[in-house]
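User: For my dataset I need records formatted as: sequence, then structure tokens, nothing else. Please produce one.
Assistant:
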Amino acid sequence: MAIAKAERLMNLALCLLGTRRPLSKRELRESIEAYLEASSDESFSRMFERDKDDLRELGLVIETVENLDGEMGYLARRDSNRLPPITLDAEEAAALGLAAKVWQQARLAGAASGALQKLRAAGLPEDVDPYEAHGALEPRIPVHEAAFEPLMLACRDRRPVVFDYRKATAAHPETRHIEPWALECWRGHWYLAGWDRDRGAERVFRLSRITGRVRSRNGAFTAEVPDVVTVRETVASWAGETADRSALIRLRSEAGYPLRAKATAVRELGDGWDELEIPYGHGLDAWLVEFGPDVVVLEPAELRADVVDRLRAVAKG
């Protein structure tokens, strides 16, 4: 069975790499003997989808293209699947090993381990242990949200998705149709940056506010995907990492240390309270709400109103 599957995957890869135009599922079935032997169209479809996912997991870049008749086709361009020779020195190998260790407690642990094995085969120095300890601190990225893995795969494969999302100021979730671009982690929370088809604009979503299952959709992206730097800047802005103004808040003494680290000025008020001046950018209201009764916004008025609205939404459930 293992040999038969390996042969089937090899034949599918050769078909996708050898074509100059997208091949439909029907054409691929007619070209590969194992698919012709499938007992039904449904059985073939399940087999093909599994094989396609397996090839992508192995690193083959498979594009999905819709033709003029609305039929989906598949191909693997040679220029997208050709890598230059990989040469790594000891320091670079150690850096990759450290990055892989970040994911050892996440569901990507297997993928990280497999990637390092491929790098070893491609020239990773044998005398370098990528998992060797490099200090007393070990990096970890928390991945608790069920939406993380399907969104990561959708970003990789450039597949549109649909999910239900509850804003901090809303009592009920709304359905969003998104073209996912990238995932970023800020302050221990994961965010998705992408194109919101319903609103016709770029949007950022916090994964912990996604409810239910993330569903994939067929078809190509309708909006151009920006470069990585632009996406990261957008996530940073929506997560409150960029600021163009200042806000004045009251903070309970011995509380809110992350806010104190950001403060540009601190003044003791007495009676267990301090006054802080902090950078004010998009997303600050959501961050302040997390500190609950330990924070009171003094100014600007618009920030105070946003925080009050969020607290009322939370109180309503």
